[in-house]
Design goal:
Elements (H helix, E strand, L loop, with lengths): L32 H13 L6 H15 L4 E6 L10 H22 L3 E6 L12 E4 L2 E4 L13 H4 L4 H22 L14 H4 L2 H22 L15 E6 L3 H6 L1 E3 L6 E3 L4 E4 L9 H8 L4 E5 L5 H11 L8 E5 L6 H14 L5 E4 L7 E2 L5 E2 L2 H18 L3 E7 L34 H16 L1
Helix pairs in contact: 1-5, 3-5, 3-13, 10-11, 11-12, 12-13
Bound molecules: phosphoenolpyruvate (PEP) and cobalt (II) ion.
Cobalt (II) ion (CO) binds next to loops.
C-alpha cells in the first residue's frame, strides 16, 4: 500500500495468532485447554467458508456506501441457533431481507448492500459471566458455539466440540443461502413471493404488494422498450454477504487463511466481521485480530465511546484510510445518539477515515419489562434511527446503513409496530436465544419508514 510514510503500520508482521499477546475480553472459561487445541487443529484443516475475492467484492460495495452511493442493510438473528438451522427458517429470514432491501432500493433510488447476520452468529458477549436462578449459579449462556441454553451445569459447561458444530452449521446455512440467492429464488420476477402470508395480510404487507406491482410494471415497460431482461443477471441473482461478531478468537484464527492471489490474510469464516461494544478496546485482542485481516470490518459504538477511543480504533483498523474497510455502528440509544455521536463523527472525519456510518437502533434501547421479558419498543428503535439520520445530515456525512436484529417468523419479542404489540403479548411467541428480534411485519415496517427517511 502507499501509506508507509504515514508512520509505523500495526499489521506489518501480523500473524493470525497475534491476538494471543493481548488481553481478550469475553472468552469462555474452556475447562479443557487440550480439547480446545485439538478442535482448533481440526478447524484449521476445514475448507474456508468464504473466499477472499468475495470479501473484496463486499469491500468494494461498502466503499460505494462510504461515498454515499449505496445503503447498507445488515440484519439477522441476535444469536443463531442450531435448531433453527432449517431450510424454512433460513428461507424466511432471507425473504424479509430481500423485501426490506427492495423497499429501500426502490424508495431511495440507491442500491442496497445486503449483509446478513447469518452462517456464524453463534457466540454472544454477556454482561455477566454467571447467571443465578433460585440460589444456583452457573456460567452464562454464551451462544451455541460455546454452551447450551438450558440451565443445568452439564449444558452450561463450555464444550469446544461446539466450535466444530458451529462451523458445520455455518457451512450448511451458507450453502443454502448461496442456492437461494443464485438459483432463482431471489429473482426480481419473484418479488411477490417473498411476502409471507402472515405479512401480506397486514397494512405494511399490502403496501409491499403495491410496490411489488409497480416493480412488475417497470419490468414490463423495460421489456417493451426492447431490453432483454433475461440477459440482465442483476435481475435474477443477488449478493447476500455474511457477517458475525468476531468473538471467539481461536475459531476466527483457525479460519484465517492467506489469499493465494495477494498473499493477504482473510478471515474466511464470513465476509464481514465486527467487534462488539464489549470487545472494542483499542489495545485488546479482538481489535489486534481484526487489524490483520483484509476483510471489511466493523466496530460497535455504545453511548460511552469517546472520540479518542474511536480515533485509536480507526488508526489500528484503517491505517491506510481506505473506503469500505471500516464500518462504525452507533448503538447509543434514542435519547443519547444525538448528543454522543456528533463529536465522534467530527473527530473521525477530521482524521480522514472514510468510514461507513451505520445505526444499530436496537441494542441501546433494550429494557426488561416488569413481567420479566427483555424487550425493545418499535417507537424507540425508529426514534434512534431518525436521530441518527438527523445527526449524520447535520454533520455532513452519509447515513450509510441500518443494523437490526430480526427474524422471518411471527414472533412476539419487540413491543409496538403497526400491530401495537403489548407487554401481555410477549409471552405468546418469545423464542429468541438472546436479544429480542423484530418479527417479519415489524421489519418491513422499519424498512418503509427508513426508506422515507432516506428519501426525505
Ligand atoms: C449484538 O450485536 O448482538 C451485540 C451484542 O451488540 P453490542 O456489541 O452492540 O452490544
Ligand atoms: Co443482540
Amino acid at each position: 500500500m502507499h501509506a508507509a510514510h504515514r508512520g509505523p503500520r500495526v499489521v506489518d508482521d501480523w500473524r493470525p495468532d497475534a491476538w494471543r499477546a493481548r488481553p481478550a475480553a469475553q472468552q469462555p472459561d474452556w475447562p479443557d485447554p487440550d480439547a480446545l487445541a485439538a478442535v482448533v487443529d481440526e478447524l484449521r484443516r476445514q475448507p474456508p467458508l468464504v473466499f477472499a475475492g468475495e470479501a473484496r467484492a463486499l469491500r468494494a460495495a461498502l466503499a460505494e456506501v462510504a461515498t454515499g452511493r449505496a445503503f447498507l442493510l445488515q440484519a439477522g438473528d441476535c444469536a443463531e441457533s442450531f435448531r433453527e438451522c432449517t431450510a424454512n427458517d433460513i428461507r424466511d429470514k432471507l425473504k424479509v431481507i430481500l423485501q426490506m432491501s427492495v423497499v429501500l432500493a426502490y424508495s431511495a433510488g440507491v442500491p442496497t448492500v445486503k449483509l446478513a447476520r447469518l452462517a456464524g452468529q453463534f457466540a454472544k458477549p454477556r454482561s455477566s459471566p454467571t447467571e443465578t436462578r433460585g440460589g444456583v449459579t452457573l456460567p452464562s449462556f454464551r451462544g451455541e458455539m460455546v454452551n447450551g441454553i438450558e440451565f443445568t451445569a452439564e449444558a452450561r459447561r463450555p464444550d469446544p466440540a461446539r466450535l466444530l458444530a458451529g462451523y458445520h452449521h455455518a457451512a450448511a446455512t451458507l450453502n443454502l443461502l448461496r442456492a437461494f440467492t443464485k438459483g432463482g429464488f431471489a429473482d426480481l420476477a419473484r418479488v411477490h413471493q417473498w411476502n409471507q402470508e402472515f405479512v401480506a395480510a397486514s397494512p405494511e404487507g399490502r403496501r409491499y404488494e403495491r410496490l411489488a406491482a409497480e416493480i412488475d410494471r417497470a419490468l414490463r415497460f423495460m421489456a417493451a422498450c426492447g431490453i432483454d431482461l433475461e440477459a440482465e443477471l442483476q435481475l435474477h441473482q443477488v449478493d447476500c454477504f455474511t457477517s458475525h461478531e468476531a468473538l471467539l478468537l481461536p475459531y476466527e484464527e483457525a479460519l484465517t487463511r492467506q489469499d493465494s492471489l495477494t498473499g493477504d490474510w482473510y478471515d474466511c469464516s464470513a465476509h464481514f466481521l465486527w467487534v462488539g461494544e464489549r470487545t472494542r478496546q483499542p489495545d485488546g485482542a479482538h481489535v489486534a485480530f481484526l487489524a490483520g485481516v483484509h476483510n471489511p470490518v466493523g466496530v460497535k459504538l455504545g453511548p460511552d465511546a469517546t472520540p479518542a477511543e474511536v480515533l485509536e480504533v480507526c488508526r489500528v483498523l484503517d491505517p491506510d484510510r481506505e473506503p469500505g474497510r471500516l464500518t462504525l455502528v452507533a448503538r447509543m440509544g434514542a435519547e443519547r445518539v444525538g448528543e454522543r455521536l456528533p463529536p465522534i463523527i467530527r473527530a473521525v472525519r477530521q482524521a480522514g477515515h472514510p468510514v461507513v456510518w451505520v445505526s444499530d437502533p436496537m441494542h441501546g434501547n433494550t429494557f426488561t419489562h416488569a413481567n420479566g421479558y427483555k424487550t425493545r419498543h418499535f417507537d424507540d428503535v425508529m426514534a434512534e434511527l431518525r436521530a441518527f439520520f438527523d445527526t449524520c445530515r447535520a454533520e455532513g456525512v452519509w447515513p450509510g446503513g441500518v443494523h437490526v436484529e430480526l427474524t422471518g417468523a411471527e414472533v412476539t419479542e419487540c413491543l409496538g409496530g403497526a400491530d401495537a404489540l403489548g407487554a401481555d403479548d410477549l409471552e405468546q411467541r418469545y423464542e429468541t436465544m438472546c436479544d429480542p428480534r423484530l418479527n417479519a411485519r415489524q421489519s418491513l415496517e422499519l424498512a418503509f419508514q427508513t426508506a422515507e427517511l432516506l428519501a426525505s
